[in-house]
Design a protein that fits this description.
The protein is of the alpha/beta class. It has one domain: Rossmann fold. The protein is built from 14 helices and 16 strands. The strands form three sheets. Strands 2, 3, 4, 5, 10, 14, 15 and 16 form an eight-stranded mixed sheet that branches. The radius of gyration is 21 Å and the shape is globular. The chain binds S-adenosyl-L-homocysteine. S-adenosyl-L-homocysteine binds next to helix 2 and helix 4.
Length: 372
């Protein structure tokens, strides 16, 4: 089937690049394939495209409603307050998209006296196009904002961090349980100019990455692990354990260990085969919060949750917030607020599938939104 997008030429170049790599060095691990598709410096999905919104491929919580970013702003200002109001706090966001979340967050947090003067904003973004959109969204916010391409570049100091729908974009490796044991799944070129999954001949060193909890899954099972996600959460955890602070990781996924195959493509709000026309669609995987939780604890942080996004936003007061907005709204706007609310907290929608994990300094008091 021909791709729907007019920019299929760029995707064609990405496919050629991947095929050349496979011819030269053999099949790619799934994470190497995913990494090239999403973040190849010229043709990568996040580098070359504007994926958000009704005309894009997916809609994220901050794009559904301003209430999402505003409540995170209140959360950050409160966390700063209970940290003893340090005169300088690093307020970081990983993967800020169009800048909508941070813009709503900063506006709401500024109602906490002293916060605006203390907060230095650090945005970690790989895409120049999105960094430009973020610059536009935050011009005139009154905050000091700096851009980085990796979390390691965010300077030391007490940290408040948010990452919404970033971890699902971090590449995963996949393993298949065969009759001969676990084998890594690889991506090979097929003989029609496309790509196919194959299974490595030997177990390979990757097996060591699988958490012990999933290793006795039955023959035919597929298990995933994201080395990049583990490394990132470990770095965040080590940072808050050393400098103080707390990080919120919000994404879709499970809090239980398990062997799962969640790798998926999404284009125009519909599933898209992962290996078809690479670069034309988003590729993502469910976030393994059980694995993140363990990695963060091993790096010295205290971890809260994961709780569902619905429970978290409910405890932060999204109900009264929606009521206050509705009080000043036209009847059309009221209907929009109602539907946004249902979408963000409804157990069948984002409210149930999305989870929130807090990674904090061991001395940080119980963060808002995580009561049982
Ligand atoms: N947080 C935003 C956007 C989510 S989409 C929202 O909720 O609307 C994922 C974002 O992460 C995009 O901004 C993308 O460019 C960025 N991104 C993807 N992989 C990344 C990586 N490895 N490092 C930093 N940013 C990344």
């Amino acid at each position: 089937m021909p791709p729907e997008r007019t920019d299929s030429a760029a995707a064609g170049e990405l496919a050629q690049h991947l095929a050349r790599r496979i011819r030269a060095a053999g099949p790619l691990t799934v994470d190497a394939f995913m990494s090239a598709v999403l973040t190849h410096p010229r043709h990568g999905y996040y580098v070359a495209r504007q994926p958000f919104g009704r005309d894009g491929d997916f809609i994220t919580s901050p794009e559904v409603s301003q209430m999402f970013g505003e409540l995170l702003g209140v959360w950050c200002a409160h966390a700063w307050d209970v940290m003893g109001r340090p005169p300088l706090v690093r307020l970081a966001e990983l993967g800020p998209g169009r800048g909508t979340l941070m813009s709503d967050l900063l506006r709401a947090a500024a109602s906490q006296a002293g916060f605006r003067a203390a907060a230095k904003v650090h945005l970690v973004e790989l895409s120049q196009t999105l960094a430009h959109a973020q610059r536009m969204a935050l011009a005139g916010s009154g905050y000091d904002v700096t851009w980085h391409t990796s979390f390691a570049e965010v300077p030391e100091g007490p940290l408040l961090l948010v990452a919404n729908e970033l971890f699902d974009a971090l590449p995963v490796r996949q393993f298949v349980r065969t009759v001969a044991g676990w084998r890594e799944r690889l991506v090979d070129a097929d003989d029609r100019g496309g790509f196919q999954f194959v299974v490595a001949a030997a177990p390979g060193p990757g097996f060591a990455l699988l958490p012990p909890e999933v290793r006795d899954a039955p023959v035919g099972a597929v298990a995933e692990v994201s080395p990049g996600a583990i490394a990132l959460v470990s770095n965040i955890a080590a940072r808050v354990a050393k400098d103080g602070g707390a990080a919120l990781i919000i994404d879709y996924g499970s809090g239980e260990f398990g062997a799962r195959d969640t790798l998926q493509g999404v284009a125009r709000h519909k599933p898209h085969p992962v290996l078809e026309n690479p670069g034309i669609a988003d590729i993502c995987a469910h976030v393994d919060f059980a694995v993140l939780r363990r990695a963060a604890e091993e790096s010295g942080a205290k971890v809260w949750g994961p709780v569902t996004q619905g429970a978290f936003l409910h405890q932060l007061g999204i109900g009264p917030r929606a009521a206050r907005l509705s009080a000043k709204a036209t009847s059309a706007q009221k209907a929009e607020i109602e539907s946004a609310l249902a979408r963000l907290i409804g157990p069948e929608g984002m409210g149930g599938l999305f989870k929130v994990l807090c990674v904090a300094h061991p001395g940080h008091p119980a963060p808002a939104g995580f009561a049982p």
